[in-house]
Design brief:
The complex is a heterodimer of chains A (about 140) and B (about 160). With about 140 residues, chain A is an all-alpha fold. Helix content of chain A is about 75%, strand content about 0%.
């Protein structure tokens, strides 16, 4: 047992905390975003592994031909968007847990910008591949 | 007591007097358990999987840019060190997938008892090792075959 009896000056009950969303005012949405993107990545990444068997050791022309097919381009873009969305949501939790104080906000912004840019780069690469295969180069 | 977090650690006993509830002890006082390694590994492999995905996007970008850039990318992926990185990425993705599936099962309300967790941990390690090895060997073999076939046909890759 503690020697000193604690004394609370904060006007907040356990029930109020549970009902009123707590200090962050959100969290359930983020939790769902992580799970739904994770579940979506299961079929998408399985598809990608299968495609890698078709593409392992392929030369440029073969990759362009592969990426130019509408179904492949669609799946690839979906995989890229979901991957970097899931990465953003997941890395945010890691930063929230381990980075404190003044470094927290810049690190979180860096994660957000970095994953968004990588996702955009991937999507534009897919678009360029489609354009490349339609011109036959 | 001004800090909200600290204040929320205050509980009351059945006679109504307030007590400070115990907080988690520091990491080093825990006995080693496989589950603690598997837990942090899920985060670490998540970070590695993201880094690998970024490399994958660069590979795709090289293919989009043109044959010259793609030849450079192939030099990287064909290099032994590059292959090692690819295999590491693959193993990380496989473990993160296995760990993720376990998380989804726990979220659905299953396999979260102490005995079940301790039973499933080694299975997760075994599945990761098996699937990673099979996929890595098969993918490297397929890529190697395709390369040598093209070299025999005399095509410049």
């Amino acid at each position: 047992m503690n020697a000193s009896v604690p004394h609370i000056e904060v006007m907040r009950s356990q029930l109020g905390r549970a009902r009123g969303l707590g200090a962050g005012h959100s969290g359930v949405g983020h939790w769902w975003a992580e799970r739904v993107s994770a579940a979506s990545l299961l079929p998408l990444s399985t598809w990608f592994v299968v495609q890698m068997f078709r593409l392992g050791g392929a030369d440029h022309a073969e990759v362009v031909k592969w990426g130019g097919k509408p179904v492949n381009a669609t799946m690839l873009a979906a995989l890229i968007i979901t991957t970097f969305y899931h990465a953003q949501v997941g890395l945010q939790v890691i930063v929230d847990d381990y980075v404190h104080g003044k470094a927290h906000l810049p690190t979180r912004l860096l994660i957000k910008i970095g994953t968004s840019l990588m996702g955009l780069l991937g999507v534009f690469a897919v678009i360029k591949l489609v354009a490349r295969s339609s011109t036959g180069k | 007591m001004q800090d909200i977090r600290k204040a929320l650690y205050v509980g009351s006993r059945s006679d109504g007097t307030l007590i400070e509830r115990p907080m988690s002890p520091h990491l080093q006082v825990y006995r080693y358990r496989l589950s603690m390694v598997l837990s942090i590994s899920n985060r670490i492999t998540g970070v590695i999987a993201t880094a690998g995905a970024a490399l994958g996007v660069f590979w795709l970008g090289a293919a989009a840019k043109g044959p010259k850039s793609f030849a450079t990318a192939r030099k990287v992926t064909g290099n032994p060190l590059g292959k090692l990185v690819l295999v590491g990425w693959l193993a990380s993705v496989v473990y993160h997938t296995v760990g993720g599936i376990r998380h989804l099962i726990w979220d659905a309300g299953y396999r979260y008892d102490k005995e079940e967790l301790n039973k499933d941990g080694p299975v997760a390690v075994g599945v990761t090792a098996g699937v990673s090895t099979v996929l890595a060997v098969a993918l490297l073999a397929v890529a190697g075959c395709r390369r040598s076939k093209r070299a025999k046909a005399g095509k410049v890759s």
